[in-house]
Amino acid sequence: MTDRPAGPPHPRGGLFYEDFVVGTVVPHRLTRTVTQMDNMLFSNMTLNPQPLHIDAHFCATETEWGRPLMNSLFTLGLMIGISVNDLTVGTTIANLGMTEVRFPAPLFEGDTLRATTEIAGKRLSRSRPDAGIVDFVHRAYRQDDVLVAECRRQAFMRRRPGPAGEG
């Protein structure tokens, strides 16, 4: 994934700013089948009483779906979370923002989610010589390869310590 000789990853496994190459698409190794418990816990923890996520009878009788939809913010969090082990564990300083968030198809209990991340851009920090900003485009797919979530995320990333990260 590098465009220059790379050193080792962070001791926790994350990549440093220098390791990201614009245009690379990373298929993530982890996948996750989502459950009713995920939907209930997340909706309850976030104080979201939307029956579209937590009321099977409501969904069966009053929605076009006929069953509960997974909470979209859970889907967003899971999609980004799946990427962490492969890309940013130990090397992210902070998330700077998420834009262009969309959910083009539904995700239901029992579906299995897989994700990819495209490295869409990067630049050195103007305020911190030890950091850079990386633009990620995360995409999540159901087991039938239908796109269910997508977002662009900017992350403040550590540069590699020492000479490789100095310029």
How would you characterize this protein structure?
It is a single chain. This protein is α+β, with helices and mostly antiparallel strands and 167 residues long. It contains 4 helices and 6 strands; from the N terminus they run ββααααββββ. Strands 1, 2, 3, 4, 5 and 6 form a 6-stranded antiparallel β-sheet that branches. The mean pLDDT is 91.
Map the helices and strands.
Blueprint: E1 25-27, E2 32-33, H1 36-45, H2 51-54, H3 56-62, H4 72-87, E3 92-102, E4 112-124, E5 131-141, E6 147-158
Antiparallel strand pairs: 1-4, 2-4, 3-6, 4-5, 5-6
Radius of gyration: 18 Å
Tell me, rounded to a whole number, the average pLDDT: 91
Based on CA inertia axes, which overall geometry fits? elongated
Distance between the termini: 18 Å
Structure classification: alpha+beta
Number of strands: 6
Low-confidence parts: none
Tally the helices: 4
Query: Approximately how much beta-strand content do the residues carry?
Result: 25-35%
Oligomer: single chain
Largest sheet composition: 6 strands, antiparallel
Q: What order do the SSEs take from the amino end to the carboxyl end, as H and E?
A: EEHHHHEEEE
Helix content: 10-25%
